[in-house]
Write a structure and sequence with these properties.
Length: 332
């Protein structure tokens, strides 16, 4: 969104849980996608976000540009990425997609990949280098949201909070005006997310699984982590609606509408990420964004139905040995 480095510190905060806000005017295509509050902040983000890993799987940079611009024109403002998705190409492509004034129309997030690395490069020192890489590739001078990628064990939590840890980089980047908000991600160990939250740092957002696929065995994120987030008024960004691949979609278990309606059934989920490497997925995401969220009863029934049809086997993020994204040694 259009916020300069100098002005972002003046953004106001407010109380209250995530609320759907529809634009009052219907004169712009940007009104088509509902928006919700970004956690405790006044910021509004589109209820559907564009995943940067999948965007970099488009047939060409020109196709990726068309996808990104169609998404923005349709009202999708939240754009996701990570430092090492596709060896950095995902950020490079997104940077090219956002040239020519498009950057000012989106809420831009990327992730720092210090996990699995010992200090100092796996902490503040390495993180600040990655930040400069990300800013250069994304062709911007500031990020709307910078997230610690892959908090998957207690050792990463301890390292993050320790001397020279990545949390020091988050604070420094905010002071330098290069980052507006900070957060963390992960999808395998909810207990570590709770430990990170209880460690005392005032995170603005988290990215976690909010998915009916495998939900009956992985709903600790929804049942255990979500209440901690709500209490701290931390923005919840959902992911893994398709399980980390499109296989469940191909087998008819889920589609964009069901994924979005499931995720938004939680009032504190402000946006849900969907991978889009073809224009047809943009159209499906835009159509899904305007649908009424499931009720809690519908949500539970849908998760049970997915489990009965073998939904967990389609949840790539739950499979043994799975590592998420290019910075973790996979192409998932």
């Amino acid at each position: 969104m259009k916020v300069s480095r100098r002005s972002f510190l003046g953004l106001l905060t407010a109380t209250g849980t995530a609320t759907v806000v529809r634009a009052e005017s219907s004169t712009s295509a940007l009104d088509a996608v509902p928006k919700r509050k970004f956690g405790r902040h006044e910021e509004l983000v589109s209820v559907v976000g564009l995943g940067g890993h999948t965007l970099a799987m488009a047939k060409s940079i020109e196709v990726a540009k068309s996808i990104a611009h169609q998404a923005i024109d349709g009202g999708i403002t939240f754009f996701d990425n990570a430092w090492d998705y596709h060896g950095g190409r995902a950020e490079e492509w997104m940077g090219q997609c956002l040239e020519g004034g498009w950057r000012e129309k989106v809420f831009l997030m990327t992730k720092v990949c210090t996990h699995g690395k010992p200090l100092p490069e796996g902490g503040k020192e390495g993180a600040m280098k990655m930040l400069e890489d990300s800013l250069r590739r994304l062709k911007t001078d500031r990020l709307d949201l910078w997230m610690i990628h892959q908090i998957e064990n207690d050792e990463e939590v301890d390292k993050a909070y320790g001397p020279g840890g990545v949390i020091e980089a988050l604070e420094l980047a905010k002071k330098q005006g290069k980052v507006r908000y900070t957060g963390f991600t992960g999808h395998t160990r909810p207990e570590s997310h709770v430990k990170l939250l209880q460690g005392g740092y005032n995170f603005d957002a988290t990215l976690m699984p909010v998915s009916a696929l495998g939900a009956l065995s992985s709903r600790s994120f929804e049942k255990t982590v979500m209440p901690e987030l709500v209490q701290r008024r931390v923005a919840v960004i959902g992911m893994k609606g398709f399980g980390g691949s499109k296989r469940a979609h191909l087998h008819g278990l889920v589609n964009a509408e069901k994924v979005v309606r499931y995720a938004l059934s939680y009032p504190d989920v402000c946006t849900h990420l969907i991978g889009m490497d073809d224009a047809k997925f943009v159209r499906e995401a835009l159509a899904a964004a305007g649908k009424t969220p499931m009720t809690p009863e519908e949500r539970d029934a849908f998760a049970t139905a997915c489990a009965a049809r073998g939904g967990e086997q389609f949840a790539a993020y739950l499979q043994p040995g799975h590592r998420d994204g290019g910075c973790c040694g996979s192409t998932a």
